[in-house]
Every structure is written in structure tokens, then in C-alpha cells.
Design goal:
This protein is α/β, with parallel strands linked by helices and 305 residues long. The protein has one domain: Aldolase class I (TIM Barrel). It has twelve helices and 14 strands. The strands form two sheets. The chain has an eight-stranded parallel beta barrel, surrounded by five helices. A four-stranded antiparallel beta sheet has the order 8-11-10-9, with no helix packed on it. Helix 3 links the parallel strand 3 and strand 4. The chain is globular and about 50 Å long.
Length: 305
Amino acid sequence: MANFELSTSVFTLSEIQRTDISPFDSVYLGDPFCRDYSKNLGENREDLKKAVELLRSNDKKVYVSSYSVPRNDDLDAAERLLSWCEELKVDAVEIHNFGTLRMAKNRHPGLKLFVGYLANVYTEPTVMKLKVFGASRIMGNYELSMEELETIKNNCNIDVELLIHGKMILGISETCLLKRRLEHKEDDCMDLCRRDFHLVSSKMFLRTFGRVTMSGKDVCMIEHLPEVIRRGFKVFRIESFAENRDYAGNVGRIYRKALEEATGGKDFNPYNYLPELQKISRSNLCNGYYFATSGQEYVTAGQRS
């Protein structure tokens, strides 16, 4: 048995049916950014049920991501999704909103609750309060360094999930940035999300995906897996929602093999994998903020030694 957990996220039933989930131990279902995303698993019970059954038939843990910025009009939908998750006996629900977290604890105490990256968790006191409301796992804000995340993990005695490859979500809007700026038809909403739109300046390179702004470059931690493991992290995510259909499977297979080597006492050479990851990335690589840099830079293992 592997002593780590590798996960990814999938928004719709059709996406999970054509995604190679074999490298992953768990999958997050549903689009937490936009309730209007076509066929969003968080809005369709029958599709969600089929996705849960598909994952269980493949011995995968099933997590569901709830909508991250609910307004008053969204509360009934949030309650409905929590009820579905309880009925389908999913392994956990990822929540990005403190009000939804309180609702889940009070009304659905049997659900296992994770707190996601859009909750903007920065400090130990915040994490301790989240534990009171039932949180058993968190993803800290992407601006936190590796040292800060390790401190939270150790001092708060909680699982901390790390993004080890893929785009960082840097911000979310209550309305769709693309709908506001581009002519569109209601039925091509998902197609609009799938187009490549970038925000470029002399110092920044970002990508938009409907309501979210994310890093233009892919976070890549393949060179730093020994350090990540040494610091005691065991739960990892590959973010693939804005990529082509082969991205999750290809990147997942690489990291699965690399993690098995790095955690199993085998000889681990990241440069056996880095060239392939560079080919897969459409916009180059970075390390995010893990090493207290600008978020756009790539730090090699040699620079850390």
C-alpha cells in the first residue's frame, strides 16, 4: 500500500468517463467555481450518482467539491448537495466557505469535511477554529510557503493537502469575467470556459477560466518530492480541470511512479520525469509560492540544497 494519497478533480460525468483515473487514489467531483458550468456534477444528482459508482468500481475515494462563493440564493443548492453527498455516502466533502462548513456540521454531522484552497486559510488559529467545525483536512492558501504549511500541519495536527502539479487558483469573481467581456450564447457557456484566455503584462502571465484567475504556468514539484516527503506531507493533488483530456492521466502516471520511488526508498532521479512534464505543460513551469518566491519562478533542487 502506498503511504501517500494522490488526487485530481473532475467537473462532469463525461469528463470522468474519458479521463484516465488509474494513477489516482481519489477524485474531487464537481465544479466549485461556477454553478452554471454545463453538466456540473454538483448540480445533477443522477450524474453525480453515476460518477460515484464509477469511482467506487475502480476502488477510488470519492470527494465532492461544493460551490465556493455561495450567495443567499445559493444556500438551498448548497444544502441539497450536502444531502446528496450524505445519501451517496461519499468519502468527504470539500468546502471553501465558512457558512457552508457550519451548515454541514450542524445539519449533516456524518459527513467528513475538508476545507479547500479558496477558503483563504493562512494561520494556525484559523485552522484550529476550522477543526471545531469538523475540518479534518485543509489546503492552505497557495501563497503560503512550504515552511508555513509544515508548521500548520504539525502544530494543528491536521492533514494538509499540497498542490504538486497544475495551475494555482489565485482569485475568484462572483460573476464570470468572460461573459462580461465576450458575446456568447447561454448554451456555449462551457465552450467559453474551455478557450485559452490569458492576462499578460511585462511581469505577469495569468490565465482565466470563467470566474477564476489562475497561474499561467504549471506548478511543478517533481524535483522537490524528497523534501516534501521529508517534511511529512502525504496528501497531494494534481490540478487538471482547465487542461486537455490527456493531461490528468499523463501527469498522474508520472507523479505516481515518482512518488512510489521517492517514498519507497528507491533511487529517485527527478530528471527522468522533468523533460516529459515540460513537454506536457503549455506555458512552462514554476514552484508557486512554496519557496517564498514571486510565484512565477522555478527553483531547482540544486538551488535548495
